[in-house]
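Q: What does the predicted 3D structure of Tryptophan--tRNA ligase look like?
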Amino acid sequence: TERPRVLSGIQPTAGSFHLGNYLGAVRQWLPFQDTHDAFYSVVDLHAITIPQDPEALRAATRLAAAQLLGAGLDPDRCTLFVQSHVPEHAQLAWVLNCVTGFGEASRMTQFKDKSAKQGAEGTTVGLFTYPILQAADILLYQTDQVPVGEDQRQHVELTRDLAQRVNGRYGGDLFRLPNAYILKDAAKIQDLQDPASKMSKSGSSPKGIVWLLDPPKTSAKKFRSAVTDTGTEVRYDPAEKPGLSNLLSVYSALSGMTVAEIEEKYTGQLYGPLKTELAELFTEWVAPFQERTRGFLDDPAELDRVLAKGAEKARPVAAETLARVHEAVGF
Ligand code: ADP
Ligand code: NA
């Protein structure tokens, strides 16, 4: 009757989460709190694979945690912790580094994109071994399922390969083999001004991206001025109507209505009313999110307490795995 374990992480970033982060990741984590033994981490060790200002990183880590709590993660129903509070992540990553082939690591496609952005001189070895740290994150907790987007599938495959290798080489069942739980594509949110590309902190224009902690009026305006086609029929059709279809996806996620129900509701209407009502829906949804998030940001002692409790829950699990691995390796 033990619940399957899920684990997911999100990087601390300066500024708030955007709507894509929320709908594509954080929101999908919430239901696992009722069905799974859910571990969620703000992965600050991953963040320093590219240069970070120390004070900004510290603030970003707290901001991410506050937003996760604001979004509805409940520390009594999941284990929410900061990665650097559990030193076993870096320790297991070292062991895994030593069983990963250089060629094997070189085949990770995400590294190629990320290192291209950093340039040859700016690319660290940490960025190169990022997927191995991710494998450690997953394997430390004997994770069953890893909810991720399609772009992370290769890293979960690597994690499985490493787990099997360690189990085979050192005997037994040191690691449980995790499965990727691929989050559905419908959760991919596009740039409001450029619906051909995904909403992204690094790629979107200021008006194309909705920041969850912006004044709601600012975001409402962005929905009302979202780029759509010149048609007149409210119909979900990502190929012909990418902008409108993106709005329908957001509408559906925020209202709980199916896309078909929304199409039905707007039959015979132009896009204007849909945009206006989506702006209102968002405004209603975001107010309590902002209030809860601010509550934690305004009470640093309470946030510290919550995160310390999360690390206290995570650490014994991680420590048990690491102790068995160290013993097996010969330490
Ligand atoms: P960004 O693309 O803005 O840099 P990250 O790469 O830091 O965001 O992603 C953090 C999390 O949010 C990941 O789980 C990622 O899959 C998800 N995510 C980011 N952008 C979107 C989007 N536009 N739609 C859906 N999910 C997204
Ligand atoms: Na990104």
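A (community wiki): The structure tokens above were generated from the sequence. The two ends are 35 Å apart (CA to CA). The longest helix spans residues 300-329.
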